[in-house]
Amino acid sequence: MEIDTVLVPVDGTRAAMDAVEYAIAIAERYDACVHALYLLGENAAGVMNDGSVEAEAVADRGEQVMAGIRAAAGIVPVDHSSACGFSVSRLSQHPGSVILDVAEMLDADFIVVPREPVTGDMEAVIEKAAEYVLAYASQPVLSV
User: Which range in 29-43, 56-70, 86-100 is most confidently predicted, on average pLDDT?
Assistant: First the structure.
């Protein structure tokens, strides 16, 4: 199996950061890079649109998460992007579809997705995405 890019979606939760550790281990084993996709929840988009939270604050939170990932990665190359997991104008857009769209766009070879329990935590965007990604991904998927 040849792996060049391992995609790992993150949302700042502990379960997502645990998935990052698996993604790093796979990337190390196959001499690949890790692409961390920071998913914003529907609340983040809403509070930015209504002005109650500055977009900079949301971006700062994303950078904090990415800094933790880069620190954990050691010598494994890490790049990242951000995406909104939900859309009010595109009803079919949800965290699972966004993860798969990014995987296709990046030509990712492997996906590591956290299988998070449904907690109701506003930051936990990936809670329900694992099942969708497992069912529809064209790449191998590790759900942790």
Answer: 29-43
